[in-house]
Design goal:
With 190 residues, the protein is mainly α. 77% of the residues lie in helices and 0% in strands. The chain has one domain: Tetracycline Repressor, domain 2, CATH 1.10.357.10.
């Protein structure tokens, strides 16, 4: 029963992600989620009390997945450049997914519910990036840089492209330029 329940939670998050990407946060209702998942209202409420709870669960999972990318690679003692290459390829692909951005929904959630949720997620994400950059510096695989400065560049250029790609078509060269610049700052030839 627990496995079925977990599959149902995952289905709800997966289908809701698409709804939030298409409609934003404010326009998605529990009825929309029921229609998208095929669940009854009672079935849906068994797993989530509100669209805000679904939205938060989506972001908590994404944040945990991103953290695991760092932690596993570092725990396995991988070369920081190998980890960085993987992370940058992932971010570059995400920046090109115009129809999968949650930027509008994030903004609306912050206005309608609270921005504290994203402030805390950002703080944790920033810590993980800074730890990872320090890992690469300490191992001699990254250049000596200001970890916070580079982390800010990574986080906010990424989110900026995600937001703008929801507003207008974004040429693939933009994400490629960002990824190449970050690589050069951290790992490029000195």
């Amino acid at each position: 029963m627990a496995a079925k329940g977990e599959r149902t939670r995952e289905l709800i998050k997966e289908k809701s992600y698409g709804l939030f990407a298409r409609k934003g946060f404010k326009e998605v209702t529990m009825k929309d989620v029921c229609l998208e998942t095929g669940l009854s209202r009672g079935g849906l409420y068994r797993y989530f009390p509100s669209t805000a709870a679904i939205f938060e669960a989506i972001f908590l999972e994404m944040s945990a997945d991103a953290g695991n990318e760092f932690e596993k690679g570092m725990a396995d003692g991988l070369d920081a450049r190998v980890i960085l290459k993987y992370l940058l390829e992932e971010r570059q692909n995400e920046m090109q997914e115009r129809d999968r951005t949650l930027s509008l929904a994030m903004f609306e959630y912050s206005q309608a519910v609270s921005n504290e949720f994203f402030v805390e997620l950002n703080r944790k994400g920033k810590e993980k990036w800074m730890q990872f950059i320090r890992y690469g510096i300490d191992r001699g695989e990254f250049k000596e840089v200001d970890e916070e400065q580079v982390t800010d560049l990574i986080l906010y250029s990424y989110q900026g492209v995600r937001m703008w790609s929801a507003v207008m078509p974004m040429d693939a060269s933009v994400s490629r330029h960002i990824v190449t610049s970050i690589w050069d700052i951290l790992a490029g030839n000195e």
